[in-house]
Amino acid sequence: MIGPHPTGGYILEELSVGMTAEKHVTVTEERIQRFAEASDDFNPVHVDEAFAAKTAYRGRIAHGLLSASFGSAVVGTILPGAGAIYLGQTLTFHKPVRIGDVVTARATVASIDTESARVVLRCAALVGDEVVMDGEATVRVPRRRRPAKA
Amino acid sequence: MIGPHPTGGYILEELSVGMTAEKHVTVTEERIQRFAEASDDFNPVHVDEAFAAKTAYRGRIAHGLLSASFGSAVVGTILPGAGAIYLGQTLTFHKPVRIGDVVTARATVASIDTESARVVLRCAALVGDEVVMDGEATVRVPRRRRPAKA
Description:
Chains A, B: Its EC number is 4.2.1.55. Chains A, B: Residues 20-111 form the MaoC-like domain. Chains A, B: One of its GO terms (biological process) is fatty acid biosynthetic process. Chains A, B: It is an enzyme of class 4 (lyase). Two copies of one chain form a homodimer. By secondary structure, chain A is of the alpha+beta class. Chain A has a domain at 12-27 and 65-140: Hotdog Thioesterase (Thiol Ester Dehydrase, Chain A), CATH 3.10.129.10. Chain A has helices at residues 29-39, 44-47, 49-53, 64-77, and strands at residues 20-26, 85-93, 102-113, 118-127, 130-140. Chain A has a five-stranded antiparallel beta sheet with strand order 1-3-4-5-2, with helices on one face. In chain A, strand 4 and strand 5 form a beta hairpin. Chain A starts with 19 loop residues before the first strand and ends in a 10-residue tail after the last strand. Strand 2 of chain A pairs antiparallel with strand 2 (85-93) of chain B, so a sheet runs across the interface.
């Protein structure tokens, strides 16, 4: 398990297959509300307990992309971190995530193409031992640090 | 172009390949801030103008999953709308999205598997005529409306 790089981001030469980073985020009512405000997605299954209670989910669930965003936060702030350019993401949703769930978002370097500087990270979101979501992030990683400008 | 279904969501039998829905969302500083709070992704390229100005982007950009969430809002609230169960999403990011950009999020029914009740929607986010992001959403759609419980 690795932590954030002191400079804010890892460069291509510092990465190796198998490096892993994770963070834990508690899904709160406030996070769901903030996500609804950001995305303009006020689907009642996310924001209306009375409506959601009558659905197959039997209660409110978090937006799928909210759980996904915890993984993208790992990729963008820890591994490879700032400097990486997000090119793509695949996501498969396995289980709903609910208010009070503590989501572990984990990213693991799966492959590195040194020629194109493209790195694929395997991403997973877990609640307890259960994988609720997984997928792959593809990023381009800088080969050297950008010198700070005065 | 179709609008939200009066019941909140389309059922499988009401969908046909080619149906399209879209919405327009202006990316504001407030949306980016809300998304950062929801996701815990405070990557300075999104929230720190002074930092972002020194990167290859030459200024702050929106979180990739924020633009993606506008598309997922179309899928979850218009087409097929409430009742659809999100199974998966692929995303390819083509261009950064900036504060002040008006994003058109569009979803089009690409294929319907009546056996499994799985529907694939082609999703695109545009700024002006330019596709900034695209991908596919896979959802399971109910065959009939769930009767409201008393």
